[in-house]
């Protein structure tokens, strides 16, 4: 049976198709301004027997395509467990939110925490900071790893942080040092959420920001242990949705 | 009538249009509603109509209307003085730009709301009130009343203790006595033992009816939706208490029959949620409608508009004024509002309620910037989790901009508890 999962996030949409538990197809696209059209394009040349949608935009595909949906929290839990059996927690930093999810020995989500409505400390925040510093979002992490410690960014609000960064640049600070400080502040926030939830390990780091090597390094240093970063961290939600697609009759109530 | 009351016609119409639409989509779209809800739908549709006319008629006949914001203002005493008690509007954002001229932005939605209703001139209850009672509960209310009292004529401030020591009890008694004196001065007649007993009887009957309604929600399938039960609790603050009590008992009769036939407003085995935390004043239906749209059912409200405000009865056995006043003070001091310290009773009540109503999980509802409840939410969460009760802590306000994030959290919580 071919099972598809689609994760409609604020920044990107991921589609995965599984056959016998193996990924046979995966594709990513920007969410853009018309996610329904993007979903249509993504599924146009793909065949599957069952599909389930997750992510921030799951509601619109539920209406447009009548797909069953599941929250990204459950999807990330299921995806993480499938990719790494025995994982006990997930940190997901995506485009506009940060989640910490606790999973029990049975692979079931037992608790979660999510940031508030503002995008402080998320992928969107890092993207904005990259622009201010004149980096690409993809190269921000590598640049930060060359930076030296010493600067502290206090604002988590993207708007305030931007003016803080601008004034640091005006003072003549090196931009890679500032980039490092930005990562440290995002890391502190994530660690705060992790500590509040008193998680068990191993911890998986998922979502687009897990591609950022500096974030991975800082998180490992702060936690004092290795964290698991899957090969395609932004596909964990879609993977989980595909797995849950198989059981969706029992998901409905 | 609206012009007489000094309401702003355009603002008021805009508010009623919005309310009407929200009511249609949130309440009237529900399936399997008990027939008895038609009365409460009617009261809501006439909340800014017939009910105001009734209050005006009472006023013409010489009754005074006393508006208040809190379950600490003793309705027994208001009724005994021959007055009518009404709860004032504080459940929606209105005229926010005007409000932020006089209050800091980081003030809770509930406080901003009653300022907005006043500044936008859209709350007929506020305008019809002969006296508005503000109570010193949290810092936000107490300090904002300093500003508010300049905006309304005949504002009366009631002080409240923050602990439950003998000294606190003594203080509350003095406050309630001053309140009696104030009402007697307004009406020109003194409150007799008979008056007070009658006041207690009326309010106790209302509380018993609401308690009866709460207990029926323990059934699976739940005979009534959480939204409808919340609405009844909200209307308790607006309606004539005697008529309201009859109607609540009537719907309870109907619900008992439904339970016998195992019929419900929601499906059997639907995930059951208990809400705990800040009050949800009319028309604040945001979180309950999100919760119930996931297929879950709300089985109780540990809230002032809900069980916290209604669970305790007043002992009416004394045969003299002082004895009855003592009983009233004792009754009100049992309210486990988060402004008190310590406040272990509240956690105990949440545990008790979640057992009694077979809740699968508790959603703690904190209004943003409501320090007392948000601070307590941490210890509440810890204590409940010790008993293996799942908890979701939410913080929100009256705006609609976080609907997406709230829905995700609530849905994920429902996935966990079902």
Characteristic key phrases:
heterodimer, A: 253 residues, alpha/beta, Nucleotidyltransferase, domain 5, 2 domains, 4-stranded mixed beta sheet, 10 helices, 8 strands, 20% strand, globular, B: 418 residues, 4-stranded parallel beta sheet, 55% helix
Shape estimate of chain B: globular
Unreliable spans of chain A are none
Helix/strand-derived category of chain B reads: alpha/beta
Sequence stretches where pLDDT stays below 50 over 5 or more residues of chain B: none
Largest interface, C-beta closer than 8 angstroms, per-chain residues: A-B, 18 and 19 residues
Q: What name does the CATH topology of the largest domain in chain A carry?
A: Nucleotidyltransferase, domain 5
What does the largest sheet of chain A look like? 4 strands, mixed
Summarize the structure in short:
The complex is a heterodimer of chains A (about 250) and B (about 425). Chain A is an alpha/beta fold.
Question: What features would you describe in this structure?
Answer:
The complex is a heterodimer of chains A (253) and B (418). Chain A has 253 residues and is of the alpha/beta class. Chain A folds into two domains: 1-84 and 232-253, Nucleotidyltransferase, domain 5 (2-Layer Sandwich), CATH 3.30.420.40; 89-229, 2-Layer Sandwich (Nucleotidyltransferase, domain 5). Chain A has ten helices and eight strands. In chain A, the strands form two sheets. Chain A has a four-stranded mixed β-sheet with strand order 3-2-1-4. By secondary structure, chain B is of the alpha/beta class. The model of chain B has no long low-confidence stretch (mean pLDDT 96). At the A-B interface, helix 3 and strand 7 of A face helix 19 of B.
Give me the secondary-structure topology.
The complex is a heterodimer of chains A (253) and B (418).
Chain A: E1 2-8, E2 12-19, E3 22-30, H1 35-43, E4 50-54, H2 58-65, H3 72-83, E5 89-93, E6 98-103, E7 109-114, H4 123-133, H5 140-145, H6 158-170, H7 175-197, E8 203-206, H8 213-223, H9 236-245, H10 248-251
Parallel strand pairs in A: 1-4, 5-8
Antiparallel strand pairs in A: 1-2, 2-3, 5-6, 6-7
Helix pairs in contact in A: 3-9, 4-6, 4-7, 7-8
Chain B: H1 2-5, H2 9-28, H3 37-45, H4 50-60, E1 65-68, H5 75-80, E2 84-87, H6 96-102, H7 109-119, H8 124-128, E3 131-135, H9 139-148, E4 155-158, H10 166-187, H11 193-216, H12 226-235, H13 241-260, E5 272-277, H14 286-293, E6 297-302, H15 307-310, H16 321-333, H17 344-356, E7 361-367, H18 371-386, E8 390-396, H19 403-417
Parallel strand pairs in B: 1-2, 1-3, 3-4, 5-6, 5-7, 7-8
């Amino acid at each position: 049976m071919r099972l598809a999962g689609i994760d409609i996030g604020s920044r990107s949409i991921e589609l995965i198709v599984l056959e016998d538990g193996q990924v046979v197809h995966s594709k990513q696209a920007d969410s853009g301004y018309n996610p329904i059209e993007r979903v249509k394009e993504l599924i146009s040349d793909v065949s599957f027997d069952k599909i389930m949608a997750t992510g921030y935009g799951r509601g619109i595909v539920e209406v447009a395509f009548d797909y069953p949906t599941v929250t990204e929290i459950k999807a990330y839990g299921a995806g993480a467990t499938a990719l790494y059996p025995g994982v006990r927690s997930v940190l997901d930093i995506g485009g506009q939110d940060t989640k910490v999810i606790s999973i029990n020995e049975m692979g079931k989500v037992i608790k979660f925490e999510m940031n508030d409505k503002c995008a402080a400390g998320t992928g969107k925040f890092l993207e904005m900071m990259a622009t201010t510093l004149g980096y690409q979002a993809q190269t921000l992490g590598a640049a930060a790893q060359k930076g030296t410690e010493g600067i502290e960014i206090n604002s988590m609000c993207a708007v305030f942080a931007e003016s803080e960064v601008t004034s640091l640049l005006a003072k003549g600070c090196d931009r890679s040092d500032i980039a490092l400080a930005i990562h440290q502040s995002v890391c502190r926030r994530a660690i705060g959420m992790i500590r509040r939830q008193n998680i068990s390990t191993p911890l998986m780091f998922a979502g687009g920001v897990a591609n950022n090597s500096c974030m991975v390094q800082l998180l490992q240093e702060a936690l004092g242990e290795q964290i698991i970063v899957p090969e395609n961290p932004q596909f964990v939600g879609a993977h989980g949705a595909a797995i849950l697609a198989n059981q969706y009759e029992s998901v409905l109530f | 009538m609206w012009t007489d009351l000094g309401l702003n016609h355009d603002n008021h119409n805009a508010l009623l249009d919005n309310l009407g639409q929200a009511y249609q989509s949130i309440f009237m779209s529900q399936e399997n509603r008990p027939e008895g809800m038609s009365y409460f739908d009617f009261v809501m549709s006439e909340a800014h109509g017939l009910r105001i006319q009734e209050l005006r008629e009472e006023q013409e006949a010489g009754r005074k209307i006393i508006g208040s914001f809190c379950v600490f203002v003793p309705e027994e005493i208001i009724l005994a003085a021959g007055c009518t008690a009404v709860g004032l509007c504080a459940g929606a954002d209105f005229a926010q730009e005007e409000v932020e001229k006089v209050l800091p932005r980081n003030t809770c939605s509930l406080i901003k709301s009653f300022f907005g209703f006043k500044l936008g001139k859209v709350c007929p209850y506020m305008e019809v009130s002969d006296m508005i009672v503000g109570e010193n509960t949290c810092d936000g209310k107490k300090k904002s009343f300093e500003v508010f009292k300049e905006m309304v004529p005949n504002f009366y401030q009631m002080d409240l203790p923050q602990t439950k020591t003998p000294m606190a009890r003594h203080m509350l008694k003095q406050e309630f006595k001053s309140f009696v004196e104030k009402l007697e001065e307004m009406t020109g007649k003194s409150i007799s033992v008979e008056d007070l007993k009658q006041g207690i009887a009326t309010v106790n009957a209302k509380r018993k009816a609401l308690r009866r309604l709460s207990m029926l929600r323990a059934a699976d399938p739940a005979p009534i939706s959480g939204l409808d039960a919340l609405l009844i609790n909200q209307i308790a603050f607006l309606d004539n208490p005697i008529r309201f009590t009859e109607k609540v008992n009537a719907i309870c009769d109907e619900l008992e029959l439904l339970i016998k036939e195992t019929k419900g407003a929601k499906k059997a085995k639907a995930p059951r949620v208990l809400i705990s935390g800040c009050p949800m004043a009319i028309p604040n239906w945001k979180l309950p409608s999100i919760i119930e749209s996931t297929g879950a059912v709300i089985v109780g409200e540990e809230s002032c508009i809900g069980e916290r405000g209604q669970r305790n009865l007043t002992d009416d056995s004394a045969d003299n004024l002082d004895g009855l006043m003592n009983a009233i003070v004792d009754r009100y001091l049992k309210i486990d509002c988060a402004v008190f310290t310590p406040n272990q009773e509240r956690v105990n009540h949440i545990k008790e309620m979640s057992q009694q109503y077979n809740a699968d999980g508790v959603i703690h509802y904190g209004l943003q910037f409501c320090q007392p409840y948000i601070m307590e939410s941490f210890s509440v969460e810890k204590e409940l989790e010790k008993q293996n009760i799942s908890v979701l802590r939410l913080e929100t306000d009256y705006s609609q901009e976080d609907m997406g994030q709230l829905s995700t959290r609530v849905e994920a919580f429902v996935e966990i508890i079902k």
